[in-house]
């Protein structure tokens, strides 16, 4: 895996481009913006005193790039997420900060609409997967959030948030 020797930014982008060019995924949305105080969930979504919030979270400034793919050709979104997660964790300085599966993540509707702003991601709560991966080394820091969902066998989605952190 040639990406291991690259700086985090290049290696992560290479992995996301590979997911983007896979014959089993079709990109349906992408966006990029500078963000200030962007909240990253490090716990399940839950309702507290009438407000939806993460059980735990962290806030960061940086450049946020978002990708949403539809998984096709009979592949499961969880399978594609697991492959991408394994490749990201193989990068130098990578670690898994948080993960949840199914109902342990909270309500799928909240993840799709409130967290990622992609209504297409709304699927069965039992079928959702969420991962937060940190990549940190001497050349920089980043966070990658992976979320997979399944509405039906033919309507499965994978979402990735890539946040290149601004060093303070």
Report on this structure:
It is a single chain. The protein has helices spanning 8-20, 77-89, 108-115, and strands at 25-41, 45-48, 51-54, 57-71, 94-101, 129-137, 140-150, 156-165. The model is unreliable at 1-7 (pLDDT under 50). The termini are far apart. Helix 1 runs antiparallel to helix 2 (77-89). It has a domain at 57-168: 3-Layer(aba) Sandwich (Protein Transport Mog1p, Chain A). With 168 residues, it is an alpha+beta fold. It has a six-stranded antiparallel beta sheet with strand order 1-4-8-7-6-5, covered by helices on one side. A two-stranded antiparallel sheet has the order 2-3. 20% of the residues lie in helices and 46% in strands. It has three helices and eight strands; from the N terminus they run αββββαβαβββ.
What does the largest sheet look like?
Answer: 6 strands, antiparallel
Shape-level CATH architecture of the domain at 57-168: 3-Layer(aba) Sandwich
The mean pLDDT is: 89
Spatial strand order of the main sheet: 1-4-8-7-6-5
Strand content: over 45%
Helix content: 10-25%
H-E order: HEEEEHEHEEE
**Sheet/helix structural class:** alpha+beta
Count of alpha and pi helical runs: 3
